[in-house]
Fold this protein.
Amino acid sequence: MNRWFRPAFQRELRSSWKRLSLAAVTLCLGMAALTALLLANARLESQSRRQADAILGGDAEVSDVRLLPEKLLESLLSSPQVARRTRVTSFVSMASLQQSGRPRLVEVLAIEDSYPLVPGMRVRPAYSFDQLRAGGVLVDSSFAATHSITPVSEKDSKDFSEKNLQRLLAERKAIRIGKKIFPVAGLAENDQMRDFASMSLASRIYIARDVAVRQKLISGQSRIRDRLLIQFPDNGRMENSISWLKNEVGKTESSKPAVRTKEDALNAAFKPARSLFLFFNAIGFSALILLGLGSAQGIHSYLQRKQADARIMSNLGASRPLLALLYVGNVIFITAVSLALGSWAGQLIFRQEISPRMSQWFTGPAIDVSLTGSGVVAYKFAISAFVLTMSLILPGALAYLRQPRSGSSFIDFKSAGDPFPKRVFIGFLELLENFPDLIWLISALLLSFLVSSEAGFNLIMVVVLTAVYLTLRLAVLFVSRMGLSPSIRLPLSIRIAGSEIGARPNQSSLTLLLFGLTVCLLVFMWDMRSNIVNQISTATSGMQKPNVFVLDAPPDAMKSIQNILAEGGEGRSILSEKITRARLLNINNKPVEDWLNRFEQGSESRLRAARLFNREQNLTARSEVSKDYGAEEVVEGKFWDKSSANSPVNEVSVEAGLANNLNIRIGDHITFDIQGIPVKVKVTSLRRVSWQSFRPNFFFVLHPSALADAPYSGLFATNLANSRQRADILNNLFEKHPGVTALDATEIAELVSRLLNSALDMVRLLTVLFFSGALLNTILSAWTSYSMRARNFSLYRCLGANNSLVLRSIFNEFLILAVIGSVAGTGASGLLSTLIQRALLTADDQLNLTILPSVAVSSVVVLICSVTAIVSGVLILRQSPFRLLRKPL
Amino acid sequence: MIEIENVTKEYPSPEGLRLRILDSVTANIPSGSQLGVVGRSGSGKTTLLSMIAGLERPTTGSIRINGFPVSTAGEAELSRFRAREVGFVYQTFQLLRHLTALENVLVAAEIAGHPSAKTAAQESLEWVGLSTRLRHRPDQLSGGEQQRVAIARAIVNKPKLILCDEPTGNLDPQSADQVFRLINSLSLELGATLFFVTHDYALAHQLAGRIELERGQLSRLQLSSGGYQ
Ligand SMILES: Nc1ncnc2c1ncn2[C@@H]1O[C@H](COP(=O)(O)OP(=O)(O)OP(=O)(O)O)[C@@H](O)[C@H]1O
Ligand SMILES: [Mg+2]
């Protein structure tokens, strides 16, 4: 190292540290956000990948709510396209653990020897799996633990005498399903995700399929799910195999079973967690952009000063490599320190704040992710850090390479005779050098692909931000044009403020962007927060909300079930609905397949529609739009009135979101297949329904006359708050009506509220992060523009401007920035919400925008700006204007 | 009448000593005088001008200009005084780079609360011969032109006092001569008192009066050609 270089570098660092420190802090925060995001994303990905196999239990699944057609099974089983397969028939039932006592809701899985196709289930003791064939069952280990169920001894497992079984039941070594008692052969432990989509949170009991068939367990059930899990040959042509499978299933006559792939299952299971995560991802990513812009601005202003120093040093004869190092050395040093600190902080935030919350989204043990541990994260981190560093160093490097108008020892790569491409290239370099924010936005674009798998969404963010940024630049141009122009009669302080904004177009537009972005994101988060809070209150509040659902009540048992549910609770409200199961046959006389073709092949809306078409729908009839639900509202068209109840009206009211997904409009005709009989109805109204209300809601509500002759089953919903009472009533119900299914939704409601609470926590965390970022950025932007502002206002003071004019002008400058920023930010938050609504949410989640947050957040921004302006004004006024003017630039 | 009485200015030096920059300067200068201010570098010329303009306060002593107590007046009065009564021209032009020539002049008129600021600014620029360059920004003007904009700004409010701190220091001899003559004739026309700091004795000699400073002390004060005080 050169003899004088080291002291020079150290002195440089000491004198520049103050100027760079805020940039370093923002960079640090940005890096922390990036690291936390990378880790959270890695965790989400690895956890979901690990559970992807377990969720479905194969590459694909063919399923139906009745037994799969034999013909289809035969053709699938004989095909070489299928490497391995297993059939699982499941149903939800009530299981008794003792002779008398509270029956528990369980999901019975009738499985074959080949189950599971993918590892993910451990059985204790190991030999117990073989005893399934003999007639034993396996029980979820957590279920067994809560109810102190233990497996039978090997000897007992072979004795199926009624007496022995009764004894085992008393000893909690057997379980009664329906009328039959089964010894518990062993305990099963699995990492399976809870399937949010099907809301089946019931504990699982495994039984051999041929035993279940022999014991007629399956044939007695009305709500079964028959699934064939398939694993394709490992030849890397999964796509082909899937389309082959769909084609095979498509050949089935009449009602077609549904085909789900691993992907589909994953998406469905993760939907709530995933969309929440996408929110945070997008917001965290914007935080990164916000903070990055701040530090880019700080470093840029530092470099502009550096330019003059470097020129002097070069005239003093410093060698060029030395100069280059001096020029970007500080920035590299400070960037490196900030990156190290930031990534450390990010890991801390992830471990302390994010990871515990994410654990609530998954079941099973947490997967540990770290920056160094997992290859993918390490490589993403390295590239991100590189991009980040480069984007901050690039302006300096370019400025060094192309010292403007200096001549002497620097390269001036532009000359008049240059060929066109070179001129364009140099023009581009100049653009980058003068607009550090542009470099940053380009880097953000690159990072958006790296940070998460949902690059598309981040990309939208970058595009929106860039658009907002360009608009703001135009606004700055406009304000500065107005500047001091004598033709506009505005108070002098406002005109001076305008001209000051125009004097630093880069800084002003950056400041504007920062304000705008902050307002946008804070408003957006506020909205999100209030939406989540609303959801929590709808999901958990009120004893009135039903938590017990009884399904599949036969028509002749309706009265009796109603009475059982009403026992011991005077005035307990019990909702009852008649449900008719039906399939969509055609819309406007077009078969659903044709209707599907209206959607673009492979598009999200087509997938969504296909999912709905393949499913059996629950219909109900109502004579008027129901008021006691409180959560149902006609948004388009007209619901029939009560007076028409006795006349034949073939009309249907469709849920608005579904109508939107399926492209159904008022006046369309829908034909349902109700047990082989086509029923054609006309769409006359669209309803919006609050799904969080936990009440039985329906996509299709028909006029009573349309369903008059259709077979139906009953559905009851009521609230049994006391758990003892709930157990007694369900037990009683189960004794008298073994065929019905009862769903206890208390756990689901709790789970939902837990999920939402964790989301709320994350929003809080992000808000704090943002707010400190915004505060820092405001200070930073005032700081970096301070010297020029001080100089200009000193001149005004020398010209005779008094303190009041100076203060008012500075105040107005910040005020104008805050107001434009707030307006732009509010607009952008609207845009963002719309985009998120479109891209992420299905129509059933509504993100309601309100005016209050924008006003509140904008006021806070204005307040912060005012304080900054006053502080900065007072600092300027404390100096002697004349002495300030004498200082060299 | 400019009454400078026993004015002393001290600055604390970085070593903690008190540096005496001006030492008991006393002078009574009648209104309308045209003075060249000369002296070696560091003799305190700029410091003297800044105190006359009310931009710095003397450590001891007092300055009164036409009865106005510059050295003791409050901030608001001083600002008004600066805006209306003083025109200052700096060696380094001190134009606002983001404003056009017209706007640079205009802003001074507006700060002084000139009733027809725009016409005044245009007129002022016409006087200095820049009526065709109203919309140019400083970086589109030559050094001499920039200094003429600064002069236009200094005279836009028709001040009674024009203070020029080496306005020709950064200019070639021809432009310097042109600028000097412009200032001289304008101040005569306005009947303003002129303080013109320069290292160019040839220029200083063209003015009727002269102030010479030597190490912070007034070594010579000549109010009109011929007479010494
Ligand atoms: N703020 C300050 N603090 C300390 N010393 C100062 C300060 N301002 C000026 N000085 C000192 O006061 C002395 C006089 O300065 P001044 O600028 O008045 O000289 P000058 O006669 O205008 O010189 P020049 O012809 O070089 O412009 C100088 O020695 C300078 O170092
Ligand atoms: Mg001087």
Observations:
- The interface with chain B takes residues 480, 483-486, 492, 496, 499, 502-503, 792, 795-805, 880-883, 885-886 of chain A (CB under 8 Å).
